[in-house]
Design brief:
By secondary structure, the protein is α+β, with helices and mostly antiparallel strands. The chain folds into three domains: 6-48 and 158-230 and 338-378, FAD/NAD(P)-binding domain (3-Layer(bba) Sandwich); 53-156 and 233-329, 2-Layer Sandwich (D-Amino Acid Oxidase, Chain A, domain 2), CATH 3.30.9.10; 401-504, Orthogonal Bundle (Helicase, Ruva Protein, domain 3). Helix content is 30%, strand content 25%. The protein has 13 helices and 20 strands. The strands form three sheets. Strands 3, 4, 5, 6, 11, 12, 13, 14, 15 and 16 form a ten-stranded mixed β-sheet that branches. Strands 1, 2, 7, 8, 9, 10, 17 and 18 form an eight-stranded mixed β-sheet that branches. A two-stranded antiparallel sheet has the order 19-20. Strand 8 and strand 9 form a beta hairpin. The radius of gyration is 23 Å and the shape is globular. It starts with 10 loop residues before the first strand and ends with a helix. One of its GO terms (molecular function) is glycerol-3-phosphate dehydrogenase (quinone) activity.
Amino acid sequence: MTVQLNDYSKIYDIAVIGGGINGAGIANDAAGRGLSVFLCEKDDLASHTSSASSKLIHGGLRYLEHKEFRLVREALAEREVLLAKAPHIIKPMRFIMPHRPHLRPAWLIRAGLFFYDHLGKREKLLGSNLIYFKEDSPLKPAITRGFEYSDCTVDDARLVVLNALQAKEKGAKVVTRTRCVKAYRQQELWHLELQSGAESYQIRAKALVNAAGPWVEEIISENLQLKSPYQIRLIQGSHIVVPKLYDCHKAFIMQNEDRRIVFAIPYLEQYTLIGTTDQEYLDDPQKVEITDVEIDYLLTVTNSHFKKQLTRTDIISQFSGVRALCDDESDNPSAVTRDYTLALQVEDKTTPLLSVFGGKITTYRKLAESALEQLGPFFTDMGEEWTANEVLPGAENWTTLEDLVIKIQNQVAGVTEQLATRWANAYGSRVWGILHERKALEQLGQHFGHGLFESEVQYLCENEWANTAEDILWRRTKLGLAFDEKQVKNLESYLTGRRQKDDAA
């Protein structure tokens, strides 16, 4: 069945292909400047690279070795900006680098950390220092000292969703599970042909932004029938999740013989997240999966540092993503630049096409500003930069996490501190859109398990584009590790019934 929808009557200023962090960030920035914006994502928001990260907002200490000073400076400054924009989903964390003299001398690490402390603006985060490990250290006895510094952790998928939500609230049209099958220039406008399930329709826009991540080059060559200005390198990064490896709330940055580093990061209170890898990927980005070689690599690096030894049986979960990096012809996948490149292609001084190559979560906001700067000459009435000083949804009227947890528990009888903390971390002040005036757990509707109630599911479906159990459990709430197969099926059954009611209406 083919259905012609009514969006063709409207001409958008900007159409964005891709609902990862770069696409959502650009759409949000543009909408906040008064431009009319359309964003389409072929799957769920953040369903690929943007939810397969190490969950860090960081300067990238190891990038200093590759002389990426501009990128590191920008990323270090962005830590403070993003921490203020979204304190509910972004948290400061201390990182410990055990010193292994045969890999990097102490003077080199000290020099790197000096630059790390001073390259970017740092007001909230503590500086670096030398530390000595005692007998109760989780590290092997041979590792006696190390270095400690600050970075931040982030709920990566929620960062994407909150940017999309803010864009929507500023007037953008955001659609998921909608594929752009073709786009072409005609009469000084872009014409996009879109497919959403059995429905197809067209929209028109003055400018097109290609933020399709691993598919950026494919969109240009196949969907637009144009020549890509750059080639991309697909670099696979994989992580494993194991039961909590140590008790402290600090992360470890582990050096390896191949000059790479691997993080061990506290994750969801009960687990440790270990990653990432760096290897060339040549297959379909939709099918990326962790390999045996990667699993062995992560286990080997971890076991060379910690007293507690891991085996494959300790792995609770794993995930992989593909980073689409601009090809700088480096022989080493770890050395390929993590900096972003924006390519602007124009025809007859109209219908600009801006394609995004590379980028990282930490610098998404600056990338968006750079994108709007390049598009600025085509929109002379566009507003000024605004994203540095306006908080993301949920950070409005923010005081402290502890204060919000207490307010939630005071209103809703029976809510545990653990549940209130999860809500506060995920939704911030938007939690009241879930709770409203409800006074007890029994008023939150059906309980699907592990503190997931019907009122939260409804909120996610109605406000955050959630559609399936996977959307809710793995990207919106991070409860996927807790749910068993029966509970997942029960939630999916509920969502199916909800969709059928919506279709009937």
